[in-house]
Design goal:
With about 180 residues, this protein is α/β, with parallel strands linked by helices. Helices cover about 40% and strands about 10% of the residues. The longest helix has 21 residues.
Length: about 180
């Protein structure tokens, strides 16, 4: 076996795994919306030389700015049952996304590009993997590579979307028990 990776592992699990065999990558949800890896996982990845593969870097599509209502989801879309997309959580999170939209407009880019550029600006060893279904979205996502964020930009983003700002849990309670283990 040449390369091993883990998903949603805690710092303790990552350390134990690295003691047995080098771990190439740790896949975790990471975005402006979900910053759990900042609770020690990112530092541990840096220390151990493990890349972080950031899934859902666009907040399950929410950070694109395209989702404006729960009715935007198909009836079988799992996000309909996700706490962040329900009731008051949806409204509070939409207000955050609107702030991202304004920052993106000021920067001359799309909200998705700003969100991806933010992830890329966090560390060179973070590899975002947005779930892209259409060529137009792929082209837009690639455009994030041209978005340069300086310290003032990062501070402005942090001011409107600080760590822990997203309203609601990432998953239903039973599913949350399986992450960061």
């Amino acid at each position: 076996m040449r390369y091993l990776g883990l998903s949603e592992a805690s710092t303790g699990t990552l350390r134990r795994a690295c003691a047995v065999h080098p771990i190439a990558a740790l896949q975790n949800e990471y975005s402006l919306w979900t910053r759990d890896p900042e609770n020690g996982v990112l530092d541990t990845c840096r220390e151990l030389g493990v890349a972080l593969v950031a899934y859902s870097p666009l907040g399950r599509g929410f950070l694109t700015g395209a989702i404006r209502s729960p009715n935007d989801f198909d009836t079988d879309d799992f996000r309909r049952n996700n706490p962040r997309f329900q009731g008051d959580n949806f409204a509070r999170n939409l207000a955050l996304v609107d702030k991202v939209r304004m920052l993106a407009a000021d920067k001359g880019c799309m909200p998705a590009q700003l969100a991806l550029a933010w992830v890329l600006a966090q560390d060179d060893s973070i590899l975002p993997i947005p779930g892209t279904r259409r060529i137009a979205a792929l082209d837009e996502n690639i455009g994030a590579l041209a978005v340069e964020l300086d310290s003032d930009d990062l501070a402005a983003i942090e001011a409107v979307f600080p760590r822990g700002a997203a309203s609601g849990a990432r998953y239903q309670e039973a599913s949350m028990a399986a992450v960061n283990r």
